[in-house]
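#lab-general

N.A. 3:47 PM
ok so I finally got the sequence cleaned up, no stray characters, all 334 residues accounted for. can someone with queue access submit it? mine expired

B.Y. 3:52 PM
send it over

N.A. 3:53 PM
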Amino acid sequence: MDTQQVNARPRAASRKAPENRPTSGVIHDNTRHSAAFTVVGNHLSQHRALSLLAIGLAVHIQSLPTGARIGIKHLADRFPESEVRIAAALRELEAAGYLRRSRTRLPDGRVVTRTVSCNQPGPRTPGAAVPRSRVRRPADPAPVRQPPTAPAPSDVSPPAEPVPVPVPTTPPADPVPVPTPPPVAPPVRVPPPTARTAPPSPLPHPVRHDAERERLASALLGDLRRLSPQLALSEADVAALAPGVAAWLERDAHPDTVRHALTTDLPALVKHPAKLLRHRITALLPPPLPGTQELVPPRPARIVIPMQNCDRCDRAFRSRHPGHCRECRSEAAA
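B.Y. 4:20 PM
back already:
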């Protein structure tokens, strides 16, 4: 009993032992969740076509309860990303099938946006058909087995035929009515938003004309296509936007600052680069630096007309040249 069994097979080493862990790559230290968790498929977390911002935004939306607000402004207040980047990520999720957005008109006339989050992309599967309840048919009565009768002699009359005993049958059950699905109202098609009718803000202009500054502004605008091919401008657009960039340079803005303001956080698709740059030049115009001379045009000198004495009545009147007053001139003309 006290002899050690040397032929016993040793216990297999655990896969989670430190010596069995991989020497490179990620190592998972997982803890099983029992509450407050969300199941996300690998098709989303390991999606090769979506950006990291779009994947994280999809996981955040799937973790929210039904009815939570996921507008662009609410998400921009929640996360440090700008509204432009969040809108681009939502468009990525909508193109990949993880979001469906539609505009619906309410009975009171308001137009709202309905957003549906899909944890599995693909076409919407139609609702499963309601199974029809089967009506149990009454079973056929079992045949009554009669005992075999011995053949009777010829002088004995044949016995009377046995009367079959009626077997009670259950009445057929009433069929269960199949509930009909409620009618689905057709989606309301909302026309696309119309173009803005209000005129845009005027483009800023420099206070003092400087040919060298305007030449530098034109060169800066023409060089933007090297930083972003979407901002390729025509010669007419460069000439129209050059005064606005010259106003930035007049307020001691460095050319690198102007390039950063015009090329940062661009949308995924720029249809009108000249309009986008015009809006940014106007909306992001910096104020003059504190301590510098105010860039205001000088006020014209006050014009003072001297006093003259009439040569005829010696009455004082204002005029640039000596002579007669208004009354004396009218009498002379009469």
